[in-house]
Design a protein that fits this description.
It is built from 6 helices and 9 strands. It has 247 residues and is an alpha/beta fold.
Length: 247
């Protein structure tokens, strides 16, 4: 750990929002640790941040524990975690949703977020000075579903409960927990929205997106607060996306 620097951990740090946030933390002077499933995607980000990187499948609790052990060996502590790793599923009518897909989505988006937050909580509780901040990546789907997206919607609604539970249990240890809900940030994962997304009335409609740097600004704001203050929930979205009024 560099003297005087805070340590930020980003899961899913090899691409998209995770990559952008990891670079944002580095630009703000944090020591940065990232993980993701593909080492080849992590390496360019590791070079750009000058930080620590390890391949890690967040659905494996032992792999998550090993990753955080590596972060602790490298830096000695953890100050901020952006709990970002997640995935989408193909649009599927609820009655046709395959159990395998359901389990994969819950295992990544919910169980993986739990494994990451649990390891972070343990380190933050036991380190000196005590405390830290966990920022969970929710979604607009934590509030309102898209059609034919039951597994994703359920996993993201559950993140809200996880965030509240961590916030409550973390109070005694100086651990703050908040959630950022992101709507249509422009990344490779949202590129199809320009050609059309399924709407509640059954039509396909292109949806506006916004620059991912505004997500980075939001995460950095949350991370930069003193631990006596917390953004419990933040929504950052394309102004004209069909969220207010979905359905």
């Amino acid at each position: 750990m560099t003297e005087g620097k805070k340590v930020a951990v980003v899961t899913g740090g090899g691409s998209g929002i995770g990559r952008a946030v990891a670079l944002g933390f580095a630009a703000q002077g944090y020591d940065v640790a990232i993980c993701g499933r593909r080492r080849d995607a992590l390496e360019p980000v590791r070079r750009d941040t000058g930080g620590y990187a390890a391949a890690c499948d967040v659905t494996d609790p032992d792999a998550v524990a090993d990753f955080f052990a590596g972060v602790r060996r490298t830096y000695g502590r953890v100050d901020v975690v952006f709990n970002n790793a997640g995935r989408f599923a193909p649009a599927t009518l609820f009655g046709d949703l395959d159990v395998k897909v359901w389990r994969e989505m819950i295992d990544t988006n919910l169980n993986g977020a739990f494994y990451v937050a649990r390891e972070a909580f343990r380190i933050m509780r036991d380190q000196a000075p005590q405390g830290g901040r966990i920022i969970n990546n929710g979604s607009i789907s934590a509030h309102a579903p898209r059609p034919e997206a039951a597994s994703y919607t359920t996993s993201k609604h559950a993140i809200t409960g996880l965030t509240k539970a961590i916030s409550l249990d973390g109070r005694a240890f100086g651990i703050a927990c908040g959630q950022i809900d992101i709507g249509n940030a422009a990344t490779d994962m949202t590129s199809q929205m320009n050609s059309g997304s399924l709407q509640a009335n059954g039509t396909m409609m292109p949806e506006p997106t916004f620059d991912v740097r505004h997500v980075v600004d939001g995460v950095l704001y949350m991370a930069g607060l003193p631990l006596a203050a917390n953004v419990q929930f933040m929504t950052v979205m394309a102004t004209n996306m069909p969220y207010i009024g979905r359905g």
